[in-house]
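Attaching the record inline, Q. Sequence:
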Amino acid sequence: MFSIFKLKDSTPLNDRESVYLMKMLQRYSVTRQGLWLQELDYRKFQFLWCAGMLDSGGVMGCFSPIFQSCVFLLPSGEPEVLPQKKYDVGRCYWVEQLFPTIIHELRHAYQWEKSKFAYILFALPVIRQFTLEYGANKAQKECADFLRRWTAEWDYREAAARGMAEQIILEKEENYVS
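Structure, as predicted:
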């Protein structure tokens, strides 16, 4: 069982992971689905790896009003394998995989900042699933298209760095609307 007491031993993301995550959040914040992030100031949050989540049975992220400027994340169960420097494009796969969870937890932070009283009221058991979790789950699902485009872009960058990328083929003119 995961509890808030396991959060105290968390460690910050390394510089590479932090920079990559901020790039993703910045790009997502200018999409239609991510505009709410501009109201939140996601840059002030500290993102931490919480080893206590490894044996939690499914908890991948946590925002708690007790730690209002922190988002706790499930660390990778495997050591990070860095690509060779020659082909290193600065990608962090685990951060990509956790991005929907990060959006979910930042949405909870947004809900907290919008109305602390409403957050406390709606955090009550049973009500929570229809209020706070509904909004966070919706935000999490809405980032799927962004994440698909993001990973395709980084897949292409990695292939290009290795000289394995195909030429970008422009779509037929009939697909464009004038």
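Helices lie at 15-28, 37-40, 93-114, 116-122, 127-130, 132-142, 144-161. The first helix runs from residue 15 to 28.

More tomorrow.
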